[in-house]
């Protein structure tokens, strides 16, 4: 087993702290939620970023028009993709081709500061609107590659001695929604409740619950949906689905993508 990379160790420490406080981020154990201004990180340089594989024309498409069929729940490049414990990414090591760093306050570096282009656009608009309303926010974690998730998950298997125990706090590689580049974790400007349930009571958390839909985001893991989504509530974890789907879900008072798209619930791995 190779040595853990520094970000994973940092993530481990953060998650251990979370354990000590009784708050265990279910899917979000890998990010290193630095809550201050983004620390300089050499890996943020564009030289280490993936090269977009889409044509410039395709990459310019925004919102619901991007990318490809929006109702395709299996294609990981579709904004309609549904990833859960029964629906891994196909291929497992899918890597988006149009990742970029949004121009917002970001408390992390490297790949986790990236989102898909259309999601980054929506994020910039949303963070700007939130700040104007007195609810400044920080992006805590965005994209997470398959390789990072392998390191993170293996760390937790070693830490707890079994996959069953690791599954309680970390997504298996290829099963994290963060790997789509359509999801991010958000914190408030103080970072006091990052990746904790109390985020829901911060100004940022309240603002998101009321307004994220206007920018095409949903809060992916809601209270009372554990048997459907497979995860404990995460008021900080947003998923971009486009304004149309987000609006319809809100209209119909549906919280989970599984229910909205008529897909089976995924309380655990098969
Ligand atoms: Zn998350």
UniProtKB/TrEMBL annotation:
Residues 24-80 are annotated as: Disordered. Residues 24-41 have a biased composition (Low complexity). CDD domains: LD-carboxypeptidase. Residues 114-243 form the D-alanyl-D-alanine carboxypeptidase-like core domain. Transmembrane segments: none annotated. Gene3D superfamilies: 3.30.1380.10. Pfam families: VanY (PF02557). Keywords: Signal. InterPro entries: DD-CPase-like, VanY-like_core_dom, VanY/YodJ_core_dom, Zn_M74/Hedgehog-like. Residues 1-26 form the signal peptide. Residues 61-74 have a biased composition (Basic and acidic residues). It comes from the Bacteria. This is M15 family metallopeptidase.
